[in-house]
Amino acid sequence: MIGDTERRDERRLATLLLIPTLIALSLVVVYPILSAIARSFFDDPIGRSPTFVGFDNYAQALFGYDREDFWAAVGNTLFFTVVSVAIETLLGLLMALVMHRAFRGRGIVRASVLLPWALPTAVSAVMWGWMLQPDGVVNAVLGTEIVWGGSEWPAKWSIIFAEVWKTAPFVALLILAGLQTIPPHLYEAAALDGASAWRRFTSVTLPLVKPAIVVAVLFRVLDALRMYDLPQILTGGANNTETLSTLVVRTATGELKQGYGGALSTLTFLFVFLCAFLLIRLLGTNVFAGVKEAAR
Amino acid sequence: MSVRHDESGPAVAPATGAAARPPAGASDRPAAAPRRRRPRRWLADVCALLVAVVVAFPLYWMVLSALRPRAELEAGDATPFTLSPSLDSFERVVLVDGFGRYLVNSLLVAGAVVVLSTLCAFLAAVALTRYRFRTRSTLLVMVLVAQMVPIEALTIPLFFLLRNIGGAVPALGLNHLGSLIIVHMAFSIPFAIWMLRGFVAAVPQSVEEAAKLDGASSFTFVRRILFPLVAPGVAACSIFSFITTWNDFLFAKTFIISAQENQTLPIAILTFFKPDENDWGGIMAGSVLMTIPVLIFFVIVQRHLISGLGGAVKG
Fold first, then answer.
1. C-alpha distance from B176 to closest chain A C-alpha (Å)
2. What is the pTM of this model?
3. Claim to verify: residue A28 and residue A173 sit in the same structural domain
């Protein structure tokens, strides 16, 4: 009996604590998604009110008239995400390992390494765009005359480079936090058992820092799949660098096709969801595990 | 969750740089090792320096461009220094009409978002980790799903939503700072909940039981005991929400359409983008100025940041 009242009290308190978050999320996140979905079943006529067209907008994007645009955007988004997150994770791990060492001025190094991440994405995109101009400093330093925005691969790589520059510090920070939770005596024990430095890295550091890497990769992938500012500002989607987000915004805001744009944003959302689902499966770690343990 | 290994000497620091090999420090291989390992240390230091240079160069270039006199900029000068630094560009930025007003607005919005979103996220994280109820796992997944929403794609539905809200509560509608506050608050909450979750979970159940025995109600426990214990996590969250809010161009440009006096700082920088020729000196000076408050905020809370994230990634 006592257990029952206690649980009822817990439920009531939990509801109370969740109310502010639920109100904010349903208002600002859920409602716009639902209205975009509702709008996606209507067409985009000029000069009369929209009529219901069922799944026509979706069909148009997936295998209709606009399928090339859509699938190109899917391909680009995947390419940018996979390549940049892979580089970021490696580089972030490296940076975290360096920052974890004890050296003088470590605090300053940590703060300054994080600066690129603290810079507004739009500002860093503009800055890279300027540095990557044909007569810009990048070409001057490299001694090349590449027109970075002028053809497909230089444009793609410049987006990836700017993205990695901006977000590797973020990954590094998350991994560094994970490194600090590893008790030092494990290394001492491993060393006493005669494990080589490489062995200690692969069998102590990596497994113990894996949860941190998983969290970092998961959140980075979710962000990278929705990449907007960098391609928008650096290339404007030219030279086959359009991502799903820039495609949606161009359609819904630029061409004012709200019905078709709604369908595209719903597809984008589903695509991100699918990727996240597969990723969580692939990483093999139960991201929700901590919750159940914590619930005593 | 303390930064307990923070001050550990080189002997136990488990990692080096590029070679990614934990160095055998002096204490674990007492005899021959130290001298032989020296070169590797040097290599690691060089790699660290190299990374730092690559990371820092664009930032250096930004500050340098902000300080260059205009003529030098327009000539496309690529020398890595300037002999005649000038504050002209900074002056142009600060003298933009209403710059002070924009700054105050940005601070107001970012401050309100930091306080409101971390508070909401903290309360939600407590509910989602410490109490048992049927929909808990579902809610947690929903929170993660909210992190998958293509924000830019929702600008138009959000615009109409805010227009409707503004009809009822003007202070939260279009053209008011309130609109930016609620939107940013909602988009900051999901990540903050996920960060705070591990933290709240790390506080042992026995602490709560002890508090209850001393006569504390559940609410008193959350407010007086749990909150101080998760403070590092709160600090980490506040950095994230501060940066995203402070840096936002898109919403500021979309929701504050006609009310000039309610614009935020990024819009001041936008005035230097001109159709014919961008004023790069002004843009770079504005960017430098915009980064300074982020830095200040970062320095204030950074001590807690690393340990704060430690709680988050431990899950």
1. 16
2. 0.79
3. no
Question: Per the domain annotation, does A60 fall within a domain?
Answer: no
Query: What DSSP string describes chain A?
Result: -HHHHHHHHHHHHHHHHHHHHHHHHIIIIIHHHHHHHHHTTB---SSS---B-TTHHHHHHHHSTTHHHHHHHHHHHHHHHHHHHHHHHHHHHHHHHHHHS--TTHHHHHHHHTHHHHS-HHHHHHHHHHHTSTTSHHHHHHT----TTTSHHHHHHHHHHHHHHHHHHHHHHHHHHHHTTS-THHHHHHHHTT--HHHHIIIIIHHHHHHHHHHHHHHHHHHHTT--HHHHHHTTTTTTT--HHHHHHIIIIIS--HHHHHHHHHHHHHHHHHHHHHHHHHH---TTHHHHHHT-
Cross-chain Cβ contact B16/A248 below 8 Å:
no
Radius of gyration of chain A (CA): 24
| A15 and A141 share one domain | no
Q: Which residues of chain B from 20 to 59 reach within 8 Å of chain A, CB to CB?
A: 20-24, 27-29, 44, 47-48, 51-52, 54-56, 58-59
A58 within domain boundaries: no
CATH H-level, domain B93-307: superfamily = MetI-like (1.10.3720.10)
Mean pLDDT, to the nearest integer, of A228-247?
Answer: 85
Q: Which domain holds residue A279?
A: 65-295
Residues 6 or more apart in contact with residue A105 via CB below 8 angstroms: none
Examine the domain organization and report whether A219 and A285 are in the same domain: yes
CATH assignment of the domain containing A149? 1.10.3720.10
Are residues A181 and A145 part of one domain? Answer: yes
- Is the confidence metric ipTM above 0.85 for this complex? no
**Among A101, A94, A121, CA closest to A230:** A121
Most B CBs within 10 Å, among A5, A22, A101, to test the B interface = A101
| Full DSSP string of A110-159 | HHHHTHHHHS-HHHHHHHHHHHTSTTSHHHHHHT----TTTSHHHHHHHH
**Per-residue model confidence as pLDDT tens digits over B121-170:** 999 999 988 887 788 888 888 888 888 888 877 888 888 899 999 888 88
**Is A96 in the same domain as A133?**
yes
Q: Report which of residues A117 and A82 the model is more confident about.
A: A82
**Intervals of CATH 1.10.3720.10 along chain B:** 93-307
Task: Measure A98 CA to nearest chain B CA, in Å.
Answer: 5
Same-domain check for residues A76 and A121: yes
Domain count within chain A:
2
Q: How far apart are CA A224 and CA A219, in angstroms?
A: 9
- Of the candidates A32, A130, A226, the beta carbon closest to that of B158 is on A32
